[in-house]
């Protein structure tokens, strides 16, 4: 990776705005809107992190996943949240996705961009005074579609090995 | 305390169980000593450590252990504590190592637990320290169909006796073809404000909660049963041992639905005719090995209306405090299945019962709230009714062992579970 991106600055600005609006849709619980940010062929993966020694071959499991979704299964998750019986989100979590360190580079394909970001998810539930913090490194593939963009891949690695939340009924 | 435990023990036989025990320091401390210090505890699946030197770190009660396969292929479970000053030897969850070296003064142990290296042995110890006397503290281990259990109790009966016939039911999860089951990747594990007993009870066959707690599954129409027929099936428990399983049935169910046909043929060959008879029409099989290891098998369609795929999750509820446990959750897959099927089963597992799983989410939400309420002062005097199926006679036609009753919705397994729990706490197990 070079010190500076070769991607046109205007495109970079657009993608940053796109990513911020995507976070806003999730945090405002506009999940149907959020699905529109995602490409039909999206892969949405969050690997399991395992505490390993420094020289181990991997820390992020090659097979273990916390999320392993596609557009259809993400839609099932959203449909579930639209029922009156998604108890894990009744009352709903209050989330805030703080997206920073957004870096945008060309991918192998024209019109598709490798977008990495840091994302700190603050999640507050019910009357609890202890929020959950989920800090992740995201590697998205963002695709130009007409005048806008779509996420064609989201891959996110959670920094904490044991997550301090009793469930993950939220989106990363 | 003993008088109180006697009351609890008697109450269980009459279908009553106190609320406060689900979040109480005194009960927790007693469980550590009398239950987890005595019973067999699940440590690992053999497929997690397939090669010499492979290890995982796990717990018996509050004791951290290294569970390792030595250079000869034998499995050992040793307290993860240097015998010199007690430093934790291994800080990694899993890996491969022939030796463990303490990072404090440098004592070195083989992965079998034998002490082989002591710096300045000759100069410092003047011949007073014999290495053979200071190996890592060993736990007894025993295995069943790939499941490795451990205990520090030298007097514990064999694992075979401890399981006491529950193997018949465990085989459904473990004998998935001639080479059995294997884990698909490392376990999820996460901390939850849930008492381990709530989870253990739920998985001992709580068919009652499904139509409500997981109502969305019925609502979206991708659950292969309906609320109306959901109560059908059996509750089986092993009297005096604490183990229990719920076998949910659906009328018109395709035998072994959700397994590929070729795999079904292999599974049928691996099971006995009685097991095939009992399991072929089982939709949901949800069971607990006393005290804190559970299994669930269920066909599940990722997309409502599609043909389901059968997945197995194995989970361990490791108690870390009153009302608090660390959930471990694995996906087991048939070793001989195609990679394609293994992937599909794993995906069904992640969408439903991994930590972001849609079913797991709702269970934990309920269990955490239940745990919180159990702590309240009013809960001290409250008992719960465990009265379902009090009068139900054993189904004599059922071809599996233990106390087996209809319907699936029944408290019989839970009375057995908590009876065994109380016996341990009273020192009478």
UniProtKB/TrEMBL annotation, chain A:
Keywords: Dioxygenase, Oxidoreductase. Pfam families: Ring_hydroxyl_B (PF00866). CDD domains: ring_hydroxylating_dioxygenases_beta. GO terms for molecular function: dioxygenase activity. It comes from the Bacteria. One of its GO terms (biological process) is 3-phenylpropionate catabolic process. Belongs to the bacterial ring-hydroxylating dioxygenase beta subunit family. This is 3-phenylpropionate/cinnamic acid dioxygenase small subunit. It comes from Rhodoglobus vestalii. The lineage of its organism: Bacteria, Bacillati, Actinomycetota, Actinomycetes, Micrococcales.
């Amino acid at each position: 990776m070079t010190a500076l991106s070769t991607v046109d600055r205007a495109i970079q600005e657009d993608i940053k705005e796109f990513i911020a609006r995507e976070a806003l849709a999730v945090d405002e619980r506009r999940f149907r809107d959020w699905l529109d940010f995602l490409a039909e062929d999206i892969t949405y993966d969050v690997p399991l992190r395992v505490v390993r020694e420094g020289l181990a071959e991997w820390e992020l499991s090659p097979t273990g996943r916390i999320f392993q979704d596609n557009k259809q299964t993400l839609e099932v998750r959203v449909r579930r949240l639209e029922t009156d019986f998604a108890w894990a989100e009744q009352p709903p979590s209050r989330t805030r996705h703080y997206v920073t360190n957004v870096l945008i580079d060309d991918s192998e394909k024209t019109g598709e961009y490798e977008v990495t970001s840091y994302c700190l998810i603050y999640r507050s539930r019910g009357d609890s005074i202890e929020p959950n913090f989920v800090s992740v490194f995201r590697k998205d593939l963002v695709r130009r579609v007409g005048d806008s963009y779509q996420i064609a891949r989201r891959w996110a690695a959670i920094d904490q090995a044991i997550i301090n939340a009793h469930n993950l009924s939220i989106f990363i | 305390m003993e008088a109180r435990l006697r009351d609890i023990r008697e109450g269980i036989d009459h279908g009553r169980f106190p609320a406060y025990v689900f979040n109480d320091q005194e009960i927790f401390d007693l469980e550590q000593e009398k239950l987890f210090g005595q019973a067999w505890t699940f440590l690992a699946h053999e497929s997690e450590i397939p090669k010499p030197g492979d290890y995982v770190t796990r717990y018996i009660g509050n004791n951290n252990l290294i569970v390792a396969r030595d250079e000869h292929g034998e499995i050992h479970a040793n307290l993860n504590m240097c015998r010199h000053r007690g430093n934790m030897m291994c800080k990694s969850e899993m890996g491969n190592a022939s030796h463990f070296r303490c990072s404090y003064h440098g004592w070195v142990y083989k992965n079998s637990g034998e002490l082989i290296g002591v710096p300045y042995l000759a100069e410092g110890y003047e011949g007073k320290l014999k290495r053979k006397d200071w190996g890592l503290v060993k736990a007894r281990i025993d295995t069943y169909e790939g499941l490795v259990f451990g205990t520090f109790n030298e007097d514990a009966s064999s694992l075979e006796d401890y399981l006491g016939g529950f193997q018949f039911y465990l085989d459904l999860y473990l004998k998935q073809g001639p080479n059995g089951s294997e884990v698909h990747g490392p376990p999820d594990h996460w901390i939850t404000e849930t008492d381990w007993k709530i989870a253990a009870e739920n998985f001992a066959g709580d068919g009652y909660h499904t139509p409500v707690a997981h109502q969305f599954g019925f609502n979206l129409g991708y659950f292969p049963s309906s609320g109306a027929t959901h109560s059908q099936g059996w509750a089986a428990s092993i009297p005096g041992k604490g183990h229990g399983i719920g076998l949910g049935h659906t009328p018109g169910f395709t035998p072994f639905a959700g397994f590929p046909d070729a795999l079904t043929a292999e599974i049928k060959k691996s099971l006995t005719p009685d097991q095939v008879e009992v399991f072929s029409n089982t939709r949901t099989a949800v069971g607990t090995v006393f005290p804190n290891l559970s299994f669930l098998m269920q066909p599940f369609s990722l997309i409502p209306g599609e043909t389901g795929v059968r997945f197995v999750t194995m989970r361990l509820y490791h108690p870390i405090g009153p009302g608090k446990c660390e959930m471990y959750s694995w996906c087991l897959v048939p070793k001989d299945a195609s990679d394609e099927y293994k992937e599909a089963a794993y995906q069904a597992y992640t969408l439903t019962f991994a930590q972001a799983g849609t079913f797991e989410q709702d269970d934990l939400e309920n269990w955490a709230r239940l745990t919180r309420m159990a702590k309240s002062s009013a809960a001290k005097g409250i008992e719960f009714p465990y009265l379902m199926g009090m009068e139900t006679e054993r189904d004599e036609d059922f071809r599996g062992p233990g106390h087996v009753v209809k319907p699936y919705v029944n408290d019989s397994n839970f009375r057995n579970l908590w009876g065994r729990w109380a016996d341990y706490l009273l020192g009478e197990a």
